[in-house]
Model the fold of this input.
Amino acid sequence: MEKDITYTGENGAQIRACISTPGKATGKLPSIILIHEIYGLDAHTRDVAKRLTNEGYLVIAPHLFHGELDKITSVETLSRLLPLLRTIPRESFGNPEKIKEVSAQLTEQDRPVFKSLMEVLAGKHDQQFVNNLKHAYQYIVEHENADSKKTASLGFCFGGGMAGLLAVNEPRMAAHIIFYGKRPPADKIKNITAPILGIYGSLDAGISPGIPTLAEEMKAAGKNYQYIMYEGASHAFFNNNRKDVYHPQAAAKAWEEVKTFLKKNL
Done:
């Protein structure tokens, strides 16, 4: 059963979210905070929520881009901006001069949206997002069907990075899954208390090259981190609504890994 709700986030902000509950939910269930891609709480995220629910999990999927940031989730706008974004090196995401240079190529309508998009990707709003995810955690563990000691996060792309930040900021959670998201900060790894599964595509030039180093840092810190690199798969390979990058074989294998990891840790 799927239900749209709002919960109170940072500074009283009203955060939209979807709650997905198994149809015959009885007793206390493990729960999952499902975190969307840059497209926000879209059809793909809702579909993954249903798939998780079919496996017996209670799911909350918040829409983190509330207020002005909601403008960046327009599919039409992103279709114009993302090709341009891919021409910018990741290390320049927080560079005002580079952003100004690229913005000059945009229409007056798209410039403020592009600025917001770059702020999100540069991490300017990360603490706000983490705080609102903590509020989502509090909301879901107080649900009548939730086992408060068994909550995991699972995020894709932008949401994968957020799952990594939850891992270093919320010690009460039981597990985390990062699908091709940016790595958690090296100086925060010591804060991790739960197992983490990382899932990546070998062709993801923006994320995957740094993962072996992350794995070494996790091992040195004594953390439970495992990752899987799917050969021939690109960034966002799990999203079956994006035919340009969807890799059905890798996606099917990744889903089995997700189910195994969640069953083991929840």
Notes: The chain has two domains: 2-66+125-265, 74-121. The two ends are 21 Å apart (CA to CA).
